[in-house]
Amino acid sequence: MKTFSAKPSDITHEWFVVDAENKILGRMATKIAHILRGKHKPIFTPHMDTGDFIVVTNVEKLVVTGKKTLQKLYYRHTGYPGGIYSTTFEKLLDKHPERILIKAVQGMLPKGPLGYAMIKKLKVYAGNTHPHTAQQPKTLNIE
Question: What's the topology of domain 15-65+95-139?
Answer without folding.
Answer: Ribosomal Protein L13p; Chain: A; (3.90.1180)
